[in-house]
Structures are given as C-alpha cells and as structure tokens.
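Why should sequence recovery work at all? Because a backbone constrains its sequence more than one might expect. Tight turns favour small or flexible residues, buried strands favour hydrophobic ones, and helices have their own preferences. The token representation captures these environments compactly. In the example below, the structure is given first.
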C-alpha cells in the first residue's frame, strides 16, 4: 500500500510540473508568485487538474445513489423547478495551490529555458569543513595523545592504589592511562557568489517598468541561488545619485529626478573593490534602466568604468533596458557599439512583461 501511494505521489508531482511548464511564461510575467514566496517554498496556482470523483457502476447493480428517479433529477425540492439565476450547466474549473521548493522551481525554469549549469570560479566548494577538537577518548593515534590528561589519569590510578609517594613523585603511565584528543567536523557555510542589482529610479521609470525589473530579478535570484548556497545580494538604486538600499526599499522607491548612470557604476565598482576579491568570488552585476542617460559625456564615463573597473573582475555584466514612454533608450546602443564583440557583457531589451522569459534566457543562457 505504501509503495502504491509513493508511486501515485510521484505521478502527481510529474503532472504538476508538466502544468507549470505549460504555463511558465504566464507565471514568469506576473508578480503574484513573488508575493507568495516563503522561506523555502512558493505556492503556485495550478488550473485544470482533475479532482478525484465517484463514478456510477457500469453494471448498475445497486450501490450508493440507486433507486427511483432519473439522471439529472434534483435531489430535493420541486422537481419541476429550475435552478437559480446564478447556476450554470458546465463543469467548474478547479484551481488548487501547489507548494514547490525554490530548487524545484529553478530546475523547471532551467529545463524549460535550456539554461546550462553555471560553472563557478574561485572556490569549488560552497562549504568548508573545519575540524574542532572537542573531547577526550581512550583510543586514538599517538599523534593525538593528550599528555596532560594521560599523566593525570596515571596520577589518579597511583593515588587510588596507594602507590603514589609524594616524597618521590614519580608518575609512570601505562596503556590504560593514555588519553587521546577527539574531534568533530563542523560544516561552515561559505558564500562565494554575489549578485549586485542596480535599478534606475529616475522620473522616466514608471511603476510598470519597476515591476518588470522586480519580477525579472526574482527569477534571476532564484536561478543563482540554485547554484550558490547563501548567495549574497546587494541592491543599488540611482537617479542622478546612487545609493545602496535593502531589498524592500529597492522595490518600493518612487521615481523622481534625472539620470546619471555612472553614479551606479561607481558605487558598484567600490563595493566589488572593497568587499569581494574576484579570485574568490563569482560576481554578477545586473543593471536595469530605460536607457535615458543625462549626457553623452556620462555615457563615455560609464564605458570607461566598465572597461577598467568592472568587466575585468566579474563573471558577466548584464544590462536590461526596459521600454518606457519617456526614456530615450539610447544607452543600450552605446553599450552595443563599444562592446560589440565582448562576451563579458550581455545586453537585453525588455519590451514588456511577455519579454521577461526571453530576457532571462539571454542573461543566463551562457552559464557563466
């Protein structure tokens, strides 16, 4: 019975994942899932999964529901009466919430988008094993022999046997007295990846553009966390001035002011330089903007910072440009012109929510 239940559960999970794949684009273009995110699970509404129900016996040899009356007759009340105005004839559409772990969600997204596995640089292990000597044992190698505890045991033995002479304190340990240091392995989590999200919050970035950025960063963060345990995430917002903020602030600030993109790149550069050794860290900066920068002079400044201070030290630099009614959209053209053959930088134009899925594939499809 248990084995049969396990098989049924496994089959149901496959059905659920199949339904998620069918509707993945819809899930990835709405912010509903993000609001339901828990510590490790995400609740996803899955439509059109058949709910188990009773069927009439084909032989009609009695059983529940048998007796006088025909199929379709009301169970109670006036048989000639019609249903209320709110009743319908068709079968209802059933929607149920299904919990998936973040890792399961990342695997589905990776399979559907054909994303390659990320190959980390620096430290290969995401955890380090630290040995801590924490006890004493009567067995062990001579290299771990605890001399003080061994002589203490020998002294206790000689005193208890009455053979200890305090005038001539000679202590001779025997094998039974020998004590050894023991240890235990302590797993120490080690973070070796950081993602730096930068977002333009100037006046030309409206709520819809920021919502698109919010949704895309959720999925990017989900995929990277699937590969890096305890991933570090940093958030930068900018108009004419850049500042680091927490996650909640990153998604709640209202738009205002002009745009100087170099302010964000300078802050990103300083964070990397001061806190993340590129030999040990996998570094992923993502910048989202509508491409409306203050001047050509600042565009040139951004190119110089990327060339000299950011690109040499990161796995990849990703720039996503969100279409806006007020943004000029010129910045992505400048990046494309200056980094045309440079695979360290990845560019993506995000026209609307439906483009989020392709944008993520563009950013993560190289497995860097």
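From this structural description, the recovered sequence reads:
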């Amino acid at each position: 019975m248990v084995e049969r239940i396990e098989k049924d559960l496994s089959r149901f999970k496959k059905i659920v994942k199949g339904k998620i794949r069918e509707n993945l684009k819809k899930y990835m273009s709405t912010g509903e899932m993000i609001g339901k995110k828990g510590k490790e699970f995400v609740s996803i509404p899955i439509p059109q999964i058949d709910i188990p129900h009773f069927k009439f016996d084909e032989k009609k040899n009695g059983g529940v529901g048998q007796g006088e009356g025909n199929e379709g007759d009301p169970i109670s009340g006036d048989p000639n009466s019609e249903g209320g105005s709110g009743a319908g004839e068709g079968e209802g559409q059933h929607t149920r919430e299904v919990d998936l772990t973040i890792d399961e969600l990342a695997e589905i997204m990776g399979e559907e988008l054909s994303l390659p596995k990320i190959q980390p640089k620096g430290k290969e292990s995401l955890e380090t094993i630290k040995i801590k000597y924490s006890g004493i044992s009567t067995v062990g190698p001579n290299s771990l022999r605890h001399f003080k505890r061994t002589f203490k045991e020998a002294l206790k033995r000689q005193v208890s046997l009455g053979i200890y002479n305090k005038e001539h304190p000679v202590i001779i340990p025997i094998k039974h007295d020998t004590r050894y240091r023991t240890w235990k392995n302590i797993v120490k989590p080690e973070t070796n990846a950081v993602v730096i999200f930068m977002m333009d919050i100037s006046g030309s970035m409206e709520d819809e553009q920021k919502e698109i950025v919010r949704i895309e960063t959720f999925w990017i963060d989900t995929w990277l966390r699937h590969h890096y345990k305890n991933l570090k995430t940093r958030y930068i917002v900018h108009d004419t001035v850049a500042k680091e903020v927490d996650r909640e602030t990153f998604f709640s600030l209202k738009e205002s002011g002009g745009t100087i993109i170099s302010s964000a790149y300078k802050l990103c550069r300083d964070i990397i330089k001061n806190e993340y050794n590129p030999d040990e860290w996998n570094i992923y900066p993502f910048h989202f903007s509508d491409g409306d920068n203050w001047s050509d002079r600042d565009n040139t400044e951004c190119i110089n910072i990327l060339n000299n201070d950011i690109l040499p030290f990161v796995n990849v630099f990703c720039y996503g440009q969100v279409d806006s009614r007020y943004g000029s959209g010129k910045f992505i053209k400048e990046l494309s012109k200056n980094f045309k053959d440079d695979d360290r930088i990845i560019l993506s134009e995000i026209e609307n929510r439906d483009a989020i899925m392709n944008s993520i594939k563009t950013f993560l499809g190289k497995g860097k």
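A few observations help interpret the result. The chain has three domains: 1-49+94-114, 127-187, 193-364.
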